[in-house]
């Protein structure tokens, strides 16, 4: 074990990392005369150096061409969202026609529920996890109220059945079986934001569909973190943001997946002109004819400046490949886990499942001694240039991101915690 906590060890690991060059594609915030050990990719990913050029390209085009910018060149604004479509589909394992970059995560979730939450007399219930991300819960509850349905009867929240606040598939299966005939929709996370637990999307979809429900996923913490096979999972829809592991900037334009089998759906939707058939959009007719596939859910012409950084980010994902990133992520998070267990067990308890097929990059660490100790540790390591993220009341979330984090970063975290304890 001693060998694992030396500078020499981390240097060798990082030198042998086939993805090591990608770190240099990012702007790493500084702490004094050195770079931060930045572990908040689960909150706001770092800026790809290429983002500025893409944003400036839009600004320049606007300055020089103004309205003509909609129609000129390869990066014309009329079809700008399509520049990201193929690469985005690769990241989430979908067909290009199944994905679209638009709006924000919560806005997309509402749009998806308008179409895929269709309560009937027998089936009114939506099933989510207890302690889901508040925005998801607010969205679900407001959808119920909007349709005149009482949340206390129609919202089913699955409580964790495991000691660390995680949910076993057996438990989820039991709950789905118990409520099956009432279920209209299951909305589930790909990776749970507090615990870092990841879920088997295909199996959840199978269970949900067998019960007669629609199944959608919030992939805020899964997109760019885990290799996904959204198409093969059979999920009806999914939504995610691009500012976390997807490194596209604060409030970046979000992502949305609609399975191919719904490409030409007659389901109700909230429509806007950018979802209208492109060949006739500018005839400005009164009748809405949706584009087949996910693009048919677009409302407005997209914020081009907001989309530009996503292009830079996706170029990196395309070059690195999700499978290679996952390989590195397993090593980095595995290294972090080993060091926490061996060196910091009396200070930090790992909440995230230890099985690698039940987690992504993130480890959630409960600080011994409660909130006060936790805050003290969190604030101290920040003074050492180690940035992690805090969740009330006593949890530190730390996410080594394989595009830019290193074994040396992980060792810095461990050394900073040891310094706080000393
Ligand atoms: C799991 C999850 N769902 C939903 C959201 C809300 O995202 P937005 O503010 O982009 O709508 C977040 C934001 O961090 C999140 O982590």
Topology:
Elements: H1 7-15, E1 26-27, E2 30-31, E3 34-35, E4 37-38, E5 47-48, H2 51-65, H3 85-92, E6 99-101, H4 105-116, E7 125-129, H5 134-146, H6 151-154, E8 155-158, H7 169-179, E9 183-189, H8 201-210, E10 214-218, H9 230-233, E11 237-240, E12 255-258, H10 304-320, H11 322-343, E13 348-350, E14 363-367, H12 371-383, E15 386-387, E16 389-391, E17 395-398, H13 407-421
Parallel strand pairs: 4-15, 7-8, 7-9, 9-10, 10-11
Antiparallel strand pairs: 1-5, 2-3, 6-12, 11-12, 13-14, 14-17, 16-17
Number of domains: 3
Strand arrangement across the biggest beta sheet: 6-12-11-10-9-7-8
CATH class of the largest domain: Alpha Beta
Fraction of residues in helices?
Answer: 25-40%
How far is the N terminus from the C terminus? 20 Å
- Roughly how many Å is the radius of gyration? 22 Å
Q: Can you tell me the CATH architecture of the largest domain?
A: 3-Layer(aba) Sandwich
Q: Classify the beta-strand content into a percent band.
A: 5-15%
Describe this structure in words.
By secondary structure, this protein is an alpha/beta fold. It has 3 domains: 2-35 and 321-421, Aspartate Aminotransferase, domain 1 (Alpha-Beta Complex); 49-96 and 259-319, Aspartate Aminotransferase, domain 2 (3-Layer(aba) Sandwich), CATH 3.40.640; 105-240, Type I PLP-dependent aspartate aminotransferase-like (Major domain) (Aspartate Aminotransferase, domain 2, 3-Layer(aba) Sandwich). 36% of the residues lie in helices and 14% in strands. It has 13 helices and 17 strands. The chain has a 7-stranded mixed β-sheet, with helices on both faces. Strands 13-14-17-16 form a 4-stranded antiparallel β-sheet. Helix 9 (230-233) links the parallel strand 10 and strand 11 (237-240). Helix 4 packs parallel to helix 5. The mean pLDDT is 97. The structure holds pyridoxal-5'-phosphate. Pyridoxal-5'-phosphate is lined by residues 104-106, 133, 135-136, 189, 193, 218, 220-221, 241, 254.
